[in-house]
Design brief:
Order of helices and strands: HHHHEHHEH
Strand order of the largest sheet: 1-2
Shape: elongated
Distance between the termini: 60 Å
Number of strands: 2
Number of helices: 7
Strand content: 5-15%
Length: 179
Amino acid sequence: MIDSESRGIGVSIDLKPHAYDPVANPELFRGVLGRRFIAFVIDIVIIMLPVAFAAVFIFFLGLVTFLLGWALFWLLYPATIVWALVYCGSTLGSPTSATVGMRMMDLEMRTWYGAPAYFVLGAVHAIVFWITVSILTPLVLVVGLLNGRQRLLHDILIGTVVINNPARAQALRKARPPL
């Protein structure tokens, strides 16, 4: 009888360890949840400003075209979704792995094994965030309080972690009293 190992059949899984340890590097996670909330508010404003301008433009176009331009309002919702996904994907997929709000708050997103984010991961992150928030609103935030890496539910589901950027982590490391 030939076993699967001798025939070369099988699956090899290379599991990588978590790159960020909250015990060994607490400065990577210090204050992340609060600043992440502020970054979220900044990003929502950035996403909604062009949408608001488009809505005002469509409103006035409707007045000029005797209400015919108002037929474009049906495009506003899908365009908002596309714009939000492009924003999240392109900013999280940038070299800084952070949205504009996250950059302002000195945060960055990484995969659980330490790699920088990429466009598809950023877009999926946004989709999973909105799905989990609309279904389990309080649970999404409570999960962040119950784990050492302060990962929210959608972070756990897609395998990401939000940490302080290297400059902030270094400043917090220097401010930490020696043991």
